Structures
1.
Amino acid sequence: MRVAIVGAGVIGVTSAFAVKNAFPNFDVKIFADAFSPDTTGDGSAGLWGPFLLGDTPVDNITRWAGCTHQWFEQLWKAGLSSKTGVSLIPGTRVTSDYKDDIDPKWTKIVYGFQKITDEKLRRLNEEHKSNYKQGWQFITYTTEPVLLLPWLMKRFIALGGKIEKRNIKTLHELAEEGYDLIINCSGLGARELVADKTMTPIRGQVYRVKAPWAMHCFIVDDDSCNYIIPNIHSVVLGGTHQEGDFDRSVREEDSKHIYNGCCRVMPSLKGCQIIRAWVGLRPGRPRIRLECETLGSSTGKEIKVIHNYGHGGSGVTLCWGCATDVVEMIRNLKVQELNSKL
């Protein structure tokens, strides 16, 4: 079977590797106009944690996120951290929006979860000059795409996978070239590729700084969107989540918001060396699209398309869980094909 993957971000590359690994005899090829280190994911901090997922069903998010968390754990335990960028890190997540007394489902997946006490919240509010209503402490993973993607790509190619730098305009291009299955991991590009106008950019601006003393991530989960996420060689300071904004240029007002907000949370960051500012456009959608459909072609042959895009700010968090679902969909398609021949 000839399989085309469209997109080489964290969703596309994990899907390609998972498919080639599960079906060694398949001819699998990735098509993309950008590869690592030039994808949106390469600029991200890679923190595991569901974020900006619209009304995607919580049970699906929990299943995909849990599967990915287990995969990161396997990579970490296998001694592959230096190659894959997987780090175990303590974290704190706070919010000024008190919704209810039920902890989010992701808290059942991370290690060492505990709710922040009222007394500690009071102290944090005094220190940060904030109004946090609730918060959680836990231990989880960061997985840096700038390391993970080349490692996965190398393994994918070693299995016989292929890549081609090419901007696919329509899925019909690939159907006409004789592909039997197309896996659409085009992210924000789905706006044009499959005319999905529900796709919208969620602009994210960050700083990367030198601050080796920062060893704990802190996320303010509200409109300020400030966060501090240590990576292996730098610390990521954020951020913004500006929906519908296509501007990829660095804005001075956002830079000030990020720096001042993060220094308020962690005063020791004042005067730290700034490596660079970066802007990426997250692939926002009302809910993740992970489903199969049939595409016609000029030859009359019907092509199966598996869509796997619209992961908002959670590409790293959900990548392996969604790739696992893609593999399962292909298995179901093969069963259906066999049954149709009986």
2.
Amino acid sequence: MSYRFTQTDLDYLRSDVGKHALAQFTGLAIDDRSMLADLTKVRKHTADHGTAVVETIRLRRRAIAKLGARSATWLLTDEALQQASPEPVAAHRARRLTGLAIHDVTCSIGADLVHLSRTASVAIGSDLHPIRAQMAAFNMATTGERAEIVVADALVPVSRGLLPYADPARRDGAGRRILSADTVPRVADLDEVWAHRPPVLRVPPGIDYEALARPGEVEIVSLDGSAREAVLWPQELARVARRATVLLSGGEGYELTSDDSDDIPVAPVGAWIVDPDAAVVRSHLVRHFAARHGLWQLDPHLAYLTGNLPPRVGRAFKVLDSAPYSERTVGEWLQKDGAGTVEIKVRGVDIEPDALRVRLRKYLTGPKSVDRTIVLARVGRNSMAYLTLAALAP
């Protein structure tokens, strides 16, 4: 159970004495081995506030990696940090709202509001929890951004003429992740309350957006290959029906939309098998990705693509051999190639990759530097196996 900050904690952490304590002890290791000793040391100097100080130092360290250096002096909660968008993702979303007047109705600790305040003509925030709302105000001040922040329920409108933006909670009262539209508050409830101007909604990337049948645009956003969020854009901001936005920390990303061509054939495997980015798969734009890069499908129901040249984005696997799947055949491939490690990728075949990897260990006789990837896929009525060499696209 994560630590729950009290009003007394917050008052202390915002005071000069609290800020000094945070600076004084920020160099402590505060890891599993040193936690007890470090906490005892901090408590000697901060009395009843030791746990709040230690927890804040730990949260700030995690926040820097996710939210950027600006969060090094923020006040946070564990739940808010877990839900907050990584900095590149939040910045991308805010750019789409440039020039608009925005009300972040679930502003939490202000992670999204900081970006919105930089791009929107007007930005205000509200949160149901007074502690989070006060943290948001403190964090905004540390970054030099300005936005009015009030305590309010997202289901009780307190603004007029502003476009609402909501990021409903993805965890229930027991801390379990929510992958459906039953977020807190629920998507349907937010749409009903704000029917006069439907909100922009940030929801889990695995949500069944087709079942929602919500008018507007669905944008699936990934960062470095991992799907991070789905953004449900209302009709007033929709440009297409579906969009995949692929963001890369170390380079230029790309976008695909449902308006792009998806005219591709289904044909046997080529020289390469290509696994599209998670955002492309979740937005059902696999065929559109293939058309852009001169690829084709192994099977019309399969997300794996194939071609004779790999694209310059995504993961590609050079095909070394192929055959109808049998465990013995796969093992003999690995043994013959002198493989020392193996990655197993499965689509459409009822095989548990981890269990298969254990059974294949006896065939891994080579050095660990010799790595192979086994791709298992349902092609037509057949379970096919492909021996491949994973490679970064050129």
